[in-house]
Write a structure and sequence with these properties.
CATH architecture of the largest domain: 2-Layer Sandwich
Domain FAD dependent oxidoreductase: 9-385
Number of domains: 2
Pfam family, one: DAO
Number of strands: 24
Number of helices: 9
Family: Belongs to the MSOX/MTOX family.
Bound molecules: flavin-adenine dinucleotide, 2-acetamido-2-deoxy-beta-D-glucopyranose
Cofactor: FAD
Largest sheet: 10 strands, mixed
CATH superfamily of the largest domain: D-Amino Acid Oxidase, subunit A, domain 2
CATH topology of the largest domain: D-Amino Acid Oxidase, Chain A, domain 2
Oligomer: single chain
InterPro entries: FAD-dep_OxRdtase, FAD/NAD-bd_sf, MTOX
CATH class of the largest domain: Alpha Beta
Length: 429
C-alpha cells in the first residue's frame, strides 16, 4: 500500500510511541494526522513515561536492540528536539553481594555485550568493587556492600514527561490535530465488512464522535487490548512502583551528577531532578499484573494507581540504606504504579493487524518496559511499516502464540517472577 500524504491517519494514544509516530509522519509531509488521547493533557498521566526521568542506556544482551538503542542515543545527543531533555551522566550497572546467580549472570552478559562492541570503546569503566564505584560516584555515602559491575558513559537519562511535552509541541507546530479527554478516549474501532476481511475505517470516542481514517495506528501502551482485543493473548499489562524523595536544593546539589544506577537485584534510581529536587527510585522486581478474567489490564483510573505495594517500600529502603543511608528513612512521595505492555520475549509488536484489509489497522505496542529510550526512532519504524506495507523484521511481527504457551509470565532479564497486585499488601504510609 502507499498512503498518500493527504489521506487521514488516526493515531490512538499520545504516549511515547504515538507522539514519535505522529511527529515522524508529520515531518514526512502527511497533512491529515489526528491523535486521540484519553487524558485531558499531554504528557498523558496514563503514559508509562509520565515520569521525571527514564534510563537511556544503549546496552542490551541482544545486539539487535543495542543497534536500535545506539541509533536512539545519537538522536538524544544531537537532535534539537530531544537533546535538551537528555543528560549523559552514564549508566552504572551493578549487583549487590546478595544477588542470586541468575542476576549475576545477567550482569556478566551485559558486561560482555558492551565489552565486545566497539561502539563503547572509551566509555566503559570496570567497577569490580565498592571502592571503584565510589570513584565514579563519590556522591554515594553508603558502604555498597558487595557491589560489583561497570559504568558505561555512553548512556544517561532523559526527562521523559518534558520530552513528551516537547514532541507534542512540535507535532502541533507541524499541524497534527489532537483530541483529548472524553473527546479523545477511544471506545471502539470502526470496521467495514468486506470480502476477504474487515477494513478499519476509524474510531469512535467516548463522547460519541466518529473519526474516519485511511489508516489507524493503535499506540495505547498497556491499554492496547482494550482497543484491539485480538492482541490479548500476546500482551500482558504489567506495572512497577515508582517513588520519590523530596530533597532540599542544597541536598540535591550535593548529589548532582551521579550516574543512573541500576542495582539489578533491587532497583534503580536517578540523580535528583534539577528542577524539583526529587530523587526518583524504583524497585525492579518482576512487576505486577492486574488480572481480570485471565487478562491483565491497567487500572482504568489514575487514583487507583497512586500507591506502591509494601514490598516496594521495603526494597526501596533496603537499597537506600546501602547507597544513600542519610536519606534512607525519608518519606516516600508521589508514589504511583507505572504500566507497560509486556510480550512473552520483550520484543515490540509493530505490525498490521491480521484479518484487517488494506493495511487499514496497525499496532505499535509490546514495549515491554524498555520503550522510552527508543522515542526518537520508533516513529521511523512505524513509517517504514506504512511505506513497505508489511513488517520485514520478523521479531516485530504480530504473533499468534500457541494456546499451551499461555500468557507471558517471566522475562529472563528481570530478577523475579510477575505477581498479581491483588496478592500484594498495600503500604499504609
Ligand atoms: C516504572 C517504569 C520504568 C521504566 N523505565 C524505563 C527506562 O528506564 N527506560 C526506557 O526506555 N523505558 C522505561 N520504561 C518503559 C516506557 O515507559 C514505555 O516503554 C513507554 O512509555 C511505552 O510507550 P507506549 O507509547 O507504548 O505507551 P505509553 O507511553 O504508556 O502511552 C500509551 C498512551 O495511550 C493512551 N491510551 C490508552 N488507551 C487509550 C484509549 N482507549 N484512547 C485514547 N488513548 C488511550 C494512554 O493514555 C497513553 O497516553 C519504564 C516503564 C515503567 C512502568
Ligand atoms: C482529514 O480527513 C477527514 C476524514 O476523512 C476529513 O473529514 C477532513 O476533511 C480531512 N481534512 C483535511 C484538511 O483534508
Ligand atoms: C566485564 O568485562 C571486563 C572485560 O572483559 C572484565 O575485565 C570484567 O571483570 C567484567 N566485569 C563483570 C562485572 O563482569
Amino acid at each position: 500500500m502507499s498512503l498518500a500524504k493527504d489521506e487521514p491517519v488516526l493515531i490512538i494514544g499520545a504516549g511515547t510511541f504515538g507522539l514519535s509516530t505522529a511527529h515522524k509522519l508529520a515531518s514526512l509531509g502527511h497533512t491529515n494526522i489526528t491523535v486521540l488521547e484519553k487524558d485531558d493533557q499531554v504528557p498523558s498521566r496514563f503514559s508509562g513515561a509520565f515520569d521525571l526521568n527514564k534510563i537511556i542506556r544503549s546496552e542490551y544482551i541482544d545486539p539487535f536492540y543495542t543497534e536500535v538503542a545506539l541509533q536512539a542515543i545519537r538522536q538524544w545527543q544531537t537532535n534539537p528536539l530531544y537533546q535538551p531533555h537528555f543528560r549523559q551522566v552514564g549508566f552504572l550497572n551493578v549487583v549487590t553481594g546478595e544477588a542470586s546467580p541468575v542476576v549475576q549472570n545477567a550482569l556478566h552478559k551485559y558486561n560482555a555485550s558492551v565489552a565486545a562492541n566497539s561502539a563503547f570503546d572509551g566509555y566503559l569503566v570496570p567497577c569490580p568493587d565498592a571502592a571503584a564505584i565510589h570513584k565514579v560516584a563519590p556522591q554515594f555515602t553508603g558502604d555498597l556492600p558487595g557491589w560489583t559491575g561497570y559504568l558505561n558513559r555512553l548512556a544517561g537519562y532523559a526527562q521523559s514527561s518534558n520530552a513528551m511535552q516537547a514532541v507534542y509541541g512540535a507535532c502541533v507546530q507541524l499541524g497534527v490535530k489532537f483530541a483529548l479527554g472524553k473527546a479523545g478516549e477511544v471506545d471502539e474501532l470502526l470496521y467495514e465488512t468486506l470480502t476477504g476481511g474487515k477494513k478499519c475505517i476509524g474510531a469512535r470516542t467516548k463522547d460519541g464522535k466518529v473519526y474516519q481514517a485511511r489508516t489507524t495506528i493503535v499506540a495505547a501502551g498497556g491499554y492496547v487490548a482494550n482497543v484491539v482485543p485480538a492482541i490479548a493473548p500476546q500482551i500482558s499489562a504489567v506495572c512497577w512502583g515508582v517513588s520519590h524523595i523530596q530533597l532540599t536544593p542544597s541536598e540535591s546539589e550535593q548529589l548532582r551528577g551521579f550516574p543512573v544506577t541500576t542495582v539489578r537485584d533491587i532497583g534503580f534510581f536517578f540523580e535528583p531532578d534539577p528542577a524539583t529536587h526529587k530523587l526518583k527510585i524504583c524497585y525492579m522486581g518482576g512487576g505486577y499484573t492486574n488480572q481480570k478474567n485471565g487478562l491483565s489490564v491497567p487500572y482504568s483510573t489514575l487514583a487507583e494507581g497512586e500507591y506502591v505495594p509494601e514490598e516496594d517500600i521495603r526494597q526501596t529502603r533496603r537499597l537506600l540504606k546501602q547507597v544513600l543511608p542519610h536519606i534512607a528513612d525519608r518519606p516516600l512521595i508521589d508514589k504511583h504504579l507505572c504500566w507497560v505492555a509486556d510480550t512473552g520475549n520483550s520484543d515490540f509488536i509493530i505490525d498490521f493487524v491480521p484479518g484487517t484489509t488494506d493495511n487499514s489497522l496497525a499496532v505499535l505496542s509490546g514495549d515491554s518496559g524498555h520503550g522510552f529510550k527508543m522515542m526518537p526512532v520508533i516513529g521511523n519504524f512505524a513509517a517504514d511499516l506504512l511505506s513497505k506495507g508489511q513488517q520485514e523484521l520478523h521479531r516485530w511481527r504480530w504473533r499468534e502464540p500457541k494456546v499451551e504457551e499461555g500468557r507471558p509470565k517471566h522475562i529472563a532479564w528481570r530478577a523475579t517472577a510477575t505477581v498479581d497486585l491483588s496478592s500484594m499488601p498495600r503500604s499504609k504510609l
